[in-house]
Amino acid sequence: MRLVSLACVPFFFLPLDTRQVAPLIEEVVEAEPESETVPVRRQLAEASEPPTHRAAPSGCSAPPAPGESQSIGRPTRGELTKGRFLRESELIHHVDSDECNYWGTDELVGAIRRAAAAVAAEHPGHRLTVGELSQRGGGDIRGHASHENGRDVDFGFYFVDEEGLPFEPSRFVDVRRDRTAHVGGHELTFDVERNWRLIEALLTDEEADLNIIVVSGRIRDWLLAHARSIGVPDALYQHASRVLLRPRRGRHPHRNHFHARIYCPPSDAECRDRGRVWDWVEQARAARAERLEGPSEAATP
Ligand SMILES: [Zn+2]
Description:
This protein is of the alpha+beta class. The protein has a single domain, classed as Muramoyl-pentapeptide Carboxypeptidase, domain 2 (2-Layer Sandwich). 22% of the residues lie in helices and 20% in strands. It is built from 5 helices and 16 strands. The strands form 5 sheets. The protein has a 6-stranded mixed sheet with strand order 1-2-11-10-13-12. Strand 3 (70-74) and strand 4 form a beta hairpin. The N and C termini lie far apart (40 Å). Bound molecules: zinc ion.
């Protein structure tokens, strides 16, 4: 199988000493009495930055033209028209990156929101860490070889701290062989349960068809072993094992984030996929079309 060429090395992957970094502070958000939320440590990039709902710079998040998004061309050479902006929310936070680069297709942005909600529904207090998607109109984007037509997104990992509390780093953090990560004086642990839940939610999304998730081979192994250990259906396990890909030799090792891509939405006529379309994706598309349009004539008695 020919794998997709990837080189996701956004600005925030650079070694800390090669860029200016604002002093890091932490905020611990305590649960309200009788609230369903749990305490969560949030590592913020700047003292003035509120913990949620950071506003994008003007012009970045202006409402798009009405109509459905169109992904055009390929992830490595493409465009995005009528895209949708992924805002920060109580479920989603952006890493310290270019706030203008959070545009995606309707399907991708919807899938990210639904996946974040699925994880939070089972594990309250955890927001999904999201890196860049695409620029508003797509095209070349600094630090990425792909991310050009609204179908790619980078996700930070879910972590817990020494006390088992959800921890939100303000940037992507490398995970070591023993599943720990070090940031801001904290020893974090890769939260395999929540990270698997994210993969599962993306794989089973009803509107977007997951194409690939690139992540380090060792993290891939942890996730698949976890899926086995909790007894997920065999089909789901098989789908995950095909979608989760190790980075190609010489590429970014993806020890600090997932790179995810969805297939071309069937409605986007000028969008071009690369590589095979899995049979379960074809089946999901057929089922979706039937829901929208009703059974085909051949299926009608
Ligand atoms: Zn990426």
